[in-house]
């Protein structure tokens, strides 16, 4: 099976002329004339980006999904290809309803008629990983029943194995290969694909997002019906709304599009900076608008998470961008380790200024974030910036937010909408209230550690590194007299917080 799949991929590569991507490289230049002579019959008049998109669609849903991920990595490809890959649509024919019923019975222990008051055999939506059916529970609640596509795991594993080989080829052929981490990109793709194959994980994602935005004036997340969920089946509250892409229909229902566009920006920054947990597949097919003007989120197979470290440096960078403080952008990149420590701050500052200064004081309709990101990635090559794989989904989501903003309100000023939110978040995190909150959170751990400190210090001083530690210890003792007032304040705060707890 693996060999047959490989042969099909090779056939599609040559049929669509994708060999030119590799044969254009100096290391394999000698094969160029041979391949062109043997495959003289091909029509390569269609632009290469279009041929690549069609080839991925021909290879099937897993390659389509990978193309969608690549469309967000403008550091890996020219803009014409990234723009074309962004047009990939993850739509596949539904599988047979008899198979859907069989999967339901295997997972729920009973046929659909015994579980649901009503179950529609015809799916309302079908994608590469699963399809969705309408149903009604015995108590009359309307639900969406998501059923995993049968037999998909072997195909995914085969295609991922081939993608790992392709990633190694990219690392070998291209000078930027190791810095751009193609193998890590494939590994991230592998993780998210396998996460999508476990619908219990998707249900947990939906439940978390719903809890984060419970009673929100901006976003509705459907309720999970856990009694009917398994690895292959997920049952959610049925949501009614207008697809976000149907602008005329939204206007007819009286929804305030400008307000909705602002909600999209605020939801994005709330998920990223308040929660560190965000819906990472916010394309128009997964977003509806409710009659009351709120967003409705659907399809929770792909979510992103950020550490406190990531959130801090993202916030610093965003705020520095908004304030046109390009020196702070440069120093934040160096502090985070995203650029080599010997990078000259003034050079990086000048490069970032050249990219970002032209975009300010302009409405969203006149700003292409794709072009801005492309220019930033070109700058990153010059300064050997390491691409952060954990931020790939964040970048993809930001581009989706841009697309939604363009559709709803071309004059939306993303900067002015986001800046107050970020300033408020930074104040809450790093102001006095943030200090008290962090001390209270860490107080129990400090209380458990303090009695052990003398013993651990003695063990450390007795170790092979004792001389170095002794020197550090005595230096601390010399500084203690100057620091006593601060230590006293911290100790007092800890005592107060422990008694309050």
Automatic annotation (TrEMBL):
Keywords: ATP-binding, Cell inner membrane, Cell membrane, Kinase, Membrane, Nucleotide-binding, Transferase, Transmembrane, Transmembrane helix, Ubiquinone, Ubiquinone biosynthesis. One of its GO terms (biological process) is regulation of ubiquinone biosynthetic process. Pathway: Cofactor biosynthesis; ubiquinone biosynthesis [regulation]. It is an enzyme of class 2 (transferase). ATP binds at residues 124-132, 146. Pfam families: ABC1 (PF03109). It is a single-pass membrane protein. One of its GO terms (molecular function) is protein kinase activity. It is found in: Cell membrane. Residues 87-332 form the ABC1 atypical kinase-like domain. Its EC number is 2.7.-.-. GO terms for cellular component: plasma membrane. The active site is at 281 (proton acceptor). The keyword Membrane applies. The chain crosses the membrane at residues 483-499. PANTHER family: CHAPERONE-ACTIVITY OF BC1 COMPLEX CABC1 -RELATED, PROTEIN ACTIVITY OF BC1 COMPLEX KINASE 7, CHLOROPLASTIC. Is probably a protein kinase regulator of UbiI activity which is involved in aerobic coenzyme Q (ubiquinone) biosynthesis. Belongs to the ABC1 family. UbiB subfamily. Belongs to the protein kinase superfamily. ADCK protein kinase family. This is Probable protein kinase UbiB. It comes from Chitinivorax tropicus. The lineage of its organism: Bacteria, Pseudomonadati, Pseudomonadota, Betaproteobacteria, Chitinivorax.
